[in-house]
Every structure is written in structure tokens, then in C-alpha cells.
Amino acid sequence: MHPVVVYTLSRLGLFAVALAVLYLVGVRNAYVLFALAFLISGVASYVLLSKQRDAVSERIARNRRGAGEN
């Protein structure tokens, strides 16, 4: 599967998990719920998705090198 798709789906999955956990913990205000889930999933993705982020970076670099040769 394309690295960008894997990374994007992983980020969305982390956001959904953070959202569900916060809701179960008792955060009911929608603005606070989404803001906290966004922040928590962002930090978690920075730590947990480094391999996927590197794969996306490598794919972009490889595509740019290929486009520069034409």
C-alpha cells in the first residue's frame, strides 16, 4: 500500500482512539474533546509513527529525484 495512505489512515486511527478514550473518561464538551484528541493523537503519532513518516519522506524524495531527471 502507498506510504502516504498508510500514514494518513494511521493518523486517523490514532485520532479515533484518542477521541473514544477521552469520551469514555468523561470529556463531553465537543470542543474540548476534539481539541484534546487532536493534541494527544499528534503527540502519539510523532512517537509511534516515525517509521511510516520516514517511508513517506523517502517516497517523496524518490519521486522528486525522478522528476528532476526528466
What does this structure look like?
The protein is mainly α. The chain is 87% helix and 0% strand. Helix 1 (3-25) crosses helix 2 (30-48). The protein is elongated and about 55 Å long. The relative contact order is 0.16. The model has no long low-confidence stretch (mean pLDDT 94).
Which short descriptors sum up this protein?
single chain, 70 residues, mainly alpha, 87% helix, 0% strand
Structure annotation, total helices? 3
Give the total of domains: 1
* Assembly level: single chain
Strand residue content: under 5%
Total DSSP E strands: 0
Give a brief description.
By secondary structure, the protein is mainly α. The chain has helices at 3-25, 30-48, 50-68.
Draw up the topology in text:
Layout: H1 3-25, H2 30-48, H3 50-68
Helix pairs in contact: 1-2, 1-3
